[in-house]
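Lay summary. Proteins are chains of building blocks that fold into shapes, and those shapes determine what they do. In this project we predict the shape from the chain. Here is one chain we studied, written as its sequence of building blocks.
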Amino acid sequence: MLQDGEPIISVNRVSKDFPGGVRALDTVSLEIFEGEFFALLGPSGCGKTTLLRILAGFETPSEGDVFIDGHSMLDVAPNRRPVNMVFQSYAVFPHMSVADNVAYGLRVSKVPRAEVERRVQEALELVRLEAYGHRMPDQLSGGQKQRVALARALVKKPRVLLLDEPLSALDAKLREAMQLELIRLQNTVGITFVIVTHDQTEALSMADRIAVIDDGQLLQVARPGELYEYPTNRFVADFIGKTNLFEATNVGCSDGVITALVNGLGRLEIPCAHETSHDVGLAVRPEKMVLFEQQPDASYLAFEARVDKTIYQGSETRVFLSTDKGLPMEVSVRNASRESAAAPVSGRVWVAWRHADTLVLPD
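And here is the predicted shape, written in a compact code that computers can read:
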């Protein structure tokens, strides 16, 4: 997906207030491009579903505007927008067969019968349910019901497909399979997908770009790798994956290096992209840290620590440590072999990481 030309969706300074003084969205602006798989990510109650419902037309912004295909949607009813929506609850009609569920929207729109049959068959083939048209919903698994909901949304050939936590009701293995299915489906049909999720792994594995929202505010929009490796603030760093966050006092920054006093670690010099005079947070991902029996060379930042607990999780072992001053850390050790997975991690060790793997977070 290339971000060129005009965006298919433009959200322009949108705010949404609910009764009781609740501001669900606060001056949100973003652009979503043609053919993009875009994720709205954040904790429960952050405003991401409200934004999706504004795109669908089920909510009206208190301020701002939404453009789809260059046209303002403020006065456009939901059924006249070039979008369709897949809900968390599937919303499959229990008294209709799979084929009738998929055909419902076309029949309401008075599409000729022969075209309805052709498009329903095409939609069922897209979601790999072509042999299930005669079945009733109570004969389907959760994943199959989700595919029916997808087929019903795609059969009307929308410009944008909106997905509201579509995989949250599925178990872990089925959820992972459906993530791959959604990626395949989006690549096949080539239309823009916008998904709402609170699952960081789901967003990272599926989306071309991710918008992180918290407390109604848009915090960062970036590709998955950029969002994980270069978060712009503490919330994003902590919300996207695991991280070790250290409070620090900034005592100087020049020539791309910040000198900071870190509680429990002392004076550190860290590369930084932007000079700042403010106190900062320093963060290191657990998988960027390495454990040594002896103090490593000066190419590492290294500190002695005591192993408090280990948790074996198959492909990795999580090691929880604390320094002599009580500063906690977590290190992720990849289980690259049976021998390394079986080797106990205990006692006192050196925790180390490369200078460049330290994130500098100004707020």
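What the prediction tells us: The chain has a mean pLDDT of 88.
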